[in-house]
Amino acid sequence: MKRNIKLFITLIAIIILMFIMYTLIFEENEIEELYKDDWAIYNYAQKIESSIGLEGLDINILPAWEITRGNSEIIIAVVDTGVDENCHYLKDNLIRGWDFYNNDSTIFDEYIYDYHGTYISSIIAKVAPNVKILPVKFMESTSGSFDDSVEAIEFAIDNGARIINCSWNYYDYNDKLYNTILKHPEVLFVCAAGNFNANLEEVSIYPCSYDLDNIINVMAVDHKGEIHQTSGYGKKKIHIAAPGKNVKVCFPENDETLISGTSVATAFVSAATSLLISENESLTPIEIRNIIIKSAQPVESLKDKCVSEGMLDIYEALKKVTLR
Amino acid sequence: MKKNKIMKKTISLVLVLILILSISNMAYGSESNYNDIRILVNSGYTEGTAMALAPEERFKIAQNIVNDPSKVDIYTISMEIDNLAEIEALFSYSELELESMGADLNKVYKTKKELLKLCDNQSIMAQKINISDIQADMIRRAVEKGIENRESGKGYNKINDINASGSITTSEMSYTQVVDDQSTTQAPKYEVTIAYTWKEVYALAIFDDVIASAWGGGFNTKNINSNANYHDYTNIGDDFGSYYTCRDMTKTETPQTGIEFEFPQSVYRSGDIAPKTKNGYAQFTLYQNQFQNYDTKVVSAYGHQIISVGVSVTISDSPVSVDFSIAYDETDQKTTTLTY
User: Which chain A residues are within 8 Å of B85, Cβ to Cβ?
Assistant: First the structure.
């Protein structure tokens, strides 16, 4: 009788174990299927554009979502081209913005004019689904004016933005833009290192080259941890790297594609900073920058290429905020 | 008869020796070529800009780097052309307007024809150009928007102060400037070499491009040479095809101040293909007869002419600068100090 009970218990234990293993494997497969072409969110060494990635090299957002998906009081301004609200990621995130390019309230005009702002917003919404995105248009296609950019930034700040995503660049120092960033030390500007393959220790690319505490400069890496071929870099000027090659994004009319560039990398960092502020609203821009730098995951190719010598790790960054 | 046999044997032996020597030379040549490229790439060239140089120039620069790297200042930067914006602009303007901007009308007709043909069938376009369906769709939209702009009289006016740091359907160019200090103890002498290479075929090639350089200190020039290489291509956004020809660039010098090297973005050939410039280089030596104990600088930049009004390039020695009008997408300028 005793023997039978033992056998029965063993059998039950085996069944439970098999069930747990099956669930884990099934869940893993489900996650892999969900992110099979989205290495930035979950890199399990899947093939992207026929090359295999480095397992684990992603923004580490899955465990971060256990802590927060963002606070709806936090606003990131996408000061960029227009944004198509039909993108499925953006359904609940967009708040009413303004178009300084055409001086009207329509924030989406044309597919080919407004795809850039749309895909930048889609990344932010994917990573920080509960934060609000304020679309402020000052570019069409890929270009815009200094004057409109200044007006757009002021509008964004007046409307409550704590973070300004600047996925754009220019070569010539501009006083107006410098002063605009300078006079809002409480607002964080997340800036792209540019796609000129430039060493920013030698070449000035703005706004990155403005030496201000409320700026985080971002370079781009691929799914293997290699620097994206056109990304700017700089041992002291660039703070962090983020996914910037073959990243899955949403285009207007809900089209999805892979795209590369420091614009994309910048959006990931903007989203990350919004999650940090969601956890602790009293964080200052320089505190956020330091947390982002200190929590970076080391990447061999980034040695001497940026301050953190690593890639964005949102979970580690959030842990540092929650421990404060 | 015996003499003939000996003769034949001797000739065979000589031929075999020649063959062996030439093979070993080729092997040595290609190995040496490979080493030169490696030295240049490790010092800051891209593989493309290193390949743009003639082998003897590559060898010379590589040797100088090995001898004294501190005397060779190398600077590389990239530039991206937004093909979509260019396609839209092409269809937004009339032929007359494009001609007044300096476009070659035959090339304009040809490019429009090519693009319209591609737009007839998007999926074939995507396959042919090796781009995604979305990119193919955006090219079609850019063509349609351009036609709409022109028909409505809206035209195409974009302010280009700031550029998005990411776009779709772009073509990338790398540009390397090298200043090699060859001064003796008595006199300053600097060799400036500028190399460029396009990674992908750009959409429009209806204008001329310019490499411009400016310097201070009243340096004179000598040993000026240049080469723009033209390659076949199948479609925009794709890799370049086989080499077709090379052309000397047109030089315009402002004595003791600067120099411009101008070359067409594409050249004619029979049939449908007009090869586009893939890579090339310009080179000159700056010299003075004796040191005067001053410092000055040299700068250079690449200007890729795009569709826009007001085409001009200005070089100046005070301050030392190269200024392109908005009709060019240009690389950033790196300043190298010259002591004289």
Answer: 141-143
